[in-house]
Specification:
The protein is α/β, with parallel strands linked by helices. Helix content is 37%, strand content 22%. The protein has two domains: 117 residues, no CATH class; 293 residues, von Willebrand factor, type A domain (Rossmann fold, 3-Layer(aba) Sandwich). The strands form five sheets. It has a six-stranded mixed sheet, sandwiched between helices. Strands 1-2-3 form a three-stranded antiparallel sheet, with helices on one face. A two-stranded antiparallel ribbon has the order 6-10. The longest helix is centred in the first third of the chain and has 45 residues.
Length: 448
């Protein structure tokens, strides 16, 4: 009895302890921090993951945009391609500039090529790291780029050596192909009539202004020739006088003219009633004249006509680089004789001269040194240098090409920049040189 009573009394005591434990556990606040931390861990992790993933997304977007701009510029300066070719070139440039393997985020571009613009876009899915805990497994990233095709207007004058040496080694044949290819390439970047215009100045000792100019007041028909010249004085008082007078008949004149009197020979000033300012007419009866030259061609958009004029060029005669530069400059200058060039505008128009020769100065009308058409005349190089300096001061961009022979230092200095001077040792190299210049001109046209 006593034992049973003892056991019965113990049960309530044990139950009381349990109730007290449960009550204390229910009211205990010491574990709340763990629970609160557990509950807030998810958004904290998501926020940290967002910072990391957004930073990664920014890096990827920056690389996407840079690669897309490179692709847009590549196809924006190209022309004459199908939409499939444009897409392939753009994707190739994009892939070359966007390291998808390193970033782990591939991208495929979309190209929309119109007559005036090239629009390129790209999208990519960036896998997230910690943002996946809130169900965000990837971020979509995109970039767009647009290149305007209208660019600047472009006026190009091809000043081409037609002297007798161009008959050697197929030089003239290769020059014709190269020049026509340049015309084709550059003309294709014109999206509207007049965006690009090209002219031609064939030269030897003369240039040809066309026989239709026979009655122009800026021609003179009587002038001195350097057969008999005398020099007196020294320094600033030094003068050279040529007394051998030539008279040229208008009858049968084919259009050729030679250098003006000094110092008009290195300028494009408008002729006046003063005979010294006028252009001396020449013909085949005068010593060393080569009026088989094709006439100069003012700036034009008639591409077929320009190519035909290139095909019609013939080689013969000696070299006078000065007269070629003068007339290239003249035909690129608004308001100058025979020119239809546009008024200059720094922001809207580039004027370019592409000058090619295969020889040194061997002739000059006014008797500097032994200028008889066969020996180099160093004194004439000074006249050429003066013209080149004057041309570049006007803002005309000058490319010079030396084929096998010619004064390398003079032609390099005549170029607007050393990189715009080319010297080749074989005629076949002209093709690549003219292609390089044509691409540079296309880029210049579309670089606005």
């Amino acid at each position: 009895m006593d034992n049973a009573t003892h056991r019965d009394e113990a049960i309530p005591e044990t139950g009381g302890r349990l109730r007290r434990f449960i009550g204390k556990w229910a009211t205990d606040r010491r574990g709340n921090f763990a629970m609160i931390f557990a509950i807030t861990l998810i958004p904290v992790a998501a926020a940290a993951g967002a910072a990391i993933d957004i930073s990664r997304a920014y890096i990827v977007e920056t690389r996407l945009s840079a690669a897309l701009d490179a692709a847009a510029l590549a196809v924006g300066t190209a022309s004459g391609m199908s939409s499939q070719e444009v897409q392939a070139i753009a994707q190739a440039y994009f892939d070359a500039n966007y390291p998808a393997g390193k970033l782990g985020v591939p991208g495929t571009i979309t190209v929309v090529d119109s007559q005036t613009t090239v629009d390129i876009s790209v999208t990519a899915d960036l896998p997230t790291t910690l943002m996946g805990v809130v169900g965000i497994n990837s971020l979509k990233i995109g970039a767009t780029s647009q290149v305007m095709r209208h660019g600047k207007k472009l006026e190009v004058m091809l000043v081409l050596d037609n002297t007798g040496s161009m008959n050697s080694g197929g030089r003239m044949t290769v020059l014709k192909v190269a020049a026509k290819d340049l015309i084709t390439t550059v003309s294709e970047v014109a999206t509207s009539p007049g965006d690009v215009r090209i002219g031609i100045v064939p030269f030897t000792t003369d240039i040809n202004v066309g026989p239709s100019s026979v009655n122009e007041s800026w021609l003179k028909w009587t002038w001195t020739h350097p057969d008999v010249c005398t020099t007196t004085g020294s320094g600033k008082n030094k003068t050279t006088t040529c007394v051998n007078t030539r008279t040229v008949s208008k009858s049968g004149w084919k259009g050729c003219v030679v250098d003006r009197d000094q110092n008009y020979d290195v300028s494009i000033s408008t002729p006046t009633t003063n005979d010294a300012t006028k252009f001396p007419a020449n013909n085949e009866n005068i010593y060393n004249a080569q009026c088989s030259l094709r006439p100069v061609v003012p700036l034009s958009t008639d591409w077929n006509m320009l190519r035909s004029e290139i095909d019609a060029m013939t080689a013969g005669g000696a070299t006078n680089t000065t007269i070629g530069f003068v007339w290239g400059w003249q035909l690129l200058t608004n308001g100058a004789l025979l020119s239809n060039a546009a008024a200059p505008s720094t922001n809207e128009l580039d004027k370019v001269m592409v000058y090619m020769t295969d020889g040194e100065n061997t002739y000059y009308r006014q008797g500097i040194g032994s200028c008889n058409g066969s020996a180099h005349c160093p004194g004439v190089d000074t006249r050429t240098a003066m013209v080149c300096d004057a041309i570049k001061q006007t803002g005309i961009i000058v490319y010079t090409v030396r084929l096998i022979n010619g004064n390398a230092a003079l032609l390099r200095d005549c170029a607007s920049h050393p990189s715009m001077y080319y010297s080749v040792d074989t005629a076949s190299e002209l093709t690549d040189v003219f292609k390089s210049i044509a691409q540079a001109l296309s880029n210049l046209r579309l670089s606005k």
